[in-house]
Specification:
The protein is α/β, with parallel strands linked by helices. 36% of the residues lie in helices and 21% in strands. Pfam families: DUF3800.
Amino acid sequence: MVFIISYIYINESGDLGTKQGSSKYFVMAAIKVEDSKKLEKIIKKTRRSFTKKMLTSNEIKGGNLPYDLKIKILKKLKNIDYEVYIIVFDKENRYKIGYGDNKKAYDILASRLAELINIDKPTFIFIDKSKNKQEEIDSFNELFLNNLNNIKKQPIKIEHADSMHYKGLQMADLISWSTFQNFENDNHEFLDMIKNKVVKLVYEN
């Protein structure tokens, strides 16, 4: 008997700041797969076709990749089974959240992402680490878990992890970056390549 589980990787693009030069949009994206090794293979194999001089970091991030590498990764992504969930937040609607604290706002927006995700089997969730205090991690986890669509009460484990060590988090970064380009810079090319996606603008009128 094969025991099937799901893996979800979550990353974000943009910022929640209010100073001049801050982004207009904040994006959070999740990619859900049953075979996390396929995500690793996509990134590892694609990287091999580029010399070290062409890459500015060992970590795949949408903002620092050559154009051709981004396109190759997204093309290969089409060949595997996955689901993508994305929330987009226009910071002009910040007052609708009710929190001036960026950490609280982050947690609330993440909970809106959780509302889109259906859990149908035991699941490991990895989120790009942005919190260091255990009480902040516990508060995030409780809110996030309470908002997931987990009707059958499947077991879930959340890990706040360094994206350097998880290719799935790096893929989630590329997806969130692609979405950010779509809304922030009116560049639809990358997001249009991503299939099986749910995109929701949150706190809109």
